[in-house]
Amino acid sequence: NDQLSWEEKNPEWQELFEESKIRDKLAEFTNMQMEGSDVFMSTFANLKSFPFFQHLAHWFLPFNKKYLLPTDDNLADIKMLEFLNLLMITPYLCNSDKYSFCYSVIQLPNQFRIISTTQFKIESAEIQKLENEENLLHGPKVAQYVVKQYIQDLYRFFKLHPERNQFIDIFSLPLSFHKTSSLSQIISDTESLRKFGELYFSKNFFSHAETIFTQLTQRDSTDNEIYEKIGYCRQMASDFEGALAAYLQSDIIRPDKPWTMQRIAMCYRRLKQPEKALEYYRMLERLTPENLSLQLNIGHCYFEQHAYAEALNCYYRVEFADEKQTRTMRPIAWTSFLMGKVDIAKRYYNAILDDKPTVQDYMNAGHVEWLLGNRRETIRLYKLAISLSDGNEIIFTTDFEKDIPDLIAAGIDKSEINLLIDELFYEFYE
After folding, report:
1. What is the DSSP string of 162-185?
2. In this predicted model, what pLDDT tens digit does every residue of 57-98 receive, in sequence order?
3. How far apart are CA 19 and CA 16, in angstroms?
4. Is 272 left (phi over 0), alpha (psi -120 to 50) or beta?
5. Cys staple from 47: which of 100, 280, 283, 287, with CB 3.0 to 4.6 Å?
6. What is the pTM of this model?
């Protein structure tokens, strides 16, 4: 839950390109096209082996039925001619894919060719109706389609041509429009830079978005949303110190925003500063006292400071209010173990082992049995942990070694540890 909320974008942000609200799948597909999504790349990737594509220039040839190779008399068929005419004016396929589509249809038996061309005609009519309603087939939009189709033709050439390795793949180069010499002067104004930053951000090109947003803060240092997004870009790059600095700046400009405060707390936790994180979680608690996830995180902060009694109180509070009572079982079990409350820990681990246990669950349950003096049960649970790791003893040993300080602190004799592990592996491989 913490991971999901950590990566959740601020719902207040208004993205430059909003998702389509149309329920119809065809309309949704068209909307993806409007945003420039290359949705047909995988569909036509395996249809570039026709003789037509043996000529390099044909990968960039604008679609026209007169350029088709005269390999089949079916080209003169009336329905085929209708299909070709429709294909010529269809804006949502690039030229290369139109040729692929055409040659694949030509090879079909007559009855299937009729079905395919008829279906294409119906779908094209529906899509063109939607696009006409948005005025996408007229005026400046026509130029946008031409540019998009040419870029997609280029993309297919650099990704699919048999001799593509002999060329520098321009699509593998960094995506930095704002740094391109021919464009930088045109898009250097604040409004244009913001649009580019929002575009990069909406498509998850976080490093490019951060560069632009940082540049914008030099022009306007009072926009808290820009600092929020800089922080988000940095957190997604695991730069938690940088993210924290940006979030703190946003909090100064506009304090007491729950979304920002939560990110600040999360950054402090990842920077191993649970006491600082706890300060922000406590402030959030005053704003949203019924938030169970928040209570769980407060418990984690106490746990990370070894304040186990306070952590356990938080976990019990969540358990009492949580109908499913699943989020706190593992934290309560392990915290109880560390506090020496092994009977409580055993009761919780018994419940955990009944519901899709993990390797760590079997191992921790084994720790509890060891403290209770049940050596045979300890070995049995450890063996189950190894088996769940596909018999990889390295995985088990690595995790086990992390728990050795806790085992010793709980009362396990250090000299007994190696003896039990030797016995475990002897039985496991016997």
Report:
1. TTGGGS--GGGS---GGG-HHHHT
2. 999 999 888 888 655 555 556 567 777 777 787 777 899 999
3. 10
4. left
5. 100
6. 0.72
